[in-house]
Design brief:
Number of strands: 10
Structural class: alpha+beta
Distance between the termini: 53 Å
Number of helices: 4
Strand content: 35-45%
Shape: elongated
Order of helices and strands: HHEEHEHEEEEEEE
Radius of gyration: 18 Å
Largest sheet: 5 strands, antiparallel
């Protein structure tokens, strides 16, 4: 056994797939940004987001998909059928892990909140100033500093100044 045995024995699907995918990605000059196993409609999707210095191209996604396909089949960590998707996290990537927040300190981000602030705002845009103990510190464009627990944000994404809603101006 290779230490990454069936998910029932060694933890959840995402952790098992991450441990399998990370060295494969490294061998291709890539890093793993995130792994998600989600149900959408009637289908299950295993999504592996890859990254590298200078950006990810379709060739990188194809290479990672081909390289991980057989090891995933051999390991068989997922009981049900699923669709494997390998992609870039994109320009407006979602920040979900501590290392994501640390890597993008000083960047412009948009945080969407589960519940509105006292003033009714459910979305904040500003500069990511700090990330400490699962707390996000943002400085809004008007200079206001806001601290919010990561668990209170439904998403935190990078904001590209030249892109509005994913469409270049």
């Amino acid at each position: 056994m290779n230490g990454l045995s069936n998910r029932k024995k060694s933890g959840n699907t995402v952790d098992v797939v991450w441990k399998l995918a990370a060295p494969i990605a490294a061998g291709l000059g890539l890093t793993i940004w995130d792994v998600r196993f989600v149900k959408e409609g009637a289908g299950w999707f295993l999504r592996i987001f890859i990254d590298k210095e200078g950006g990810v191209g379709i060739e990188d996604c194809e290479a990672m998909s081909r390289a991980i396909n057989d090891p995933l089949d051999q390991l068989d960590p997922i009981e049900q059928s699923y669709c494997l998707e390998v992609s870039s996290p994109g320009m407006e990537r979602e920040l979900v892990r501590e290392e994501h927040f640390r890597a993008f300190l000083g960047a412009k981000v948009r945080a969407k909140l589960f519940h509105p602030l006292e003033d009714g705002r459910r979305e904040l845009t500003g500069t990511l100033r700090d990330f400490q103990e699962d707390t996000i510190i943002l400085e809004t464009d008007n200079g206001e500093t806001i601290s919010l627990a990561q668990k209170d944000a439904s998403s935190v994404r990078l904001v590209e100044d030249d892109i509005v809603g994913g469409i270049a101006e």
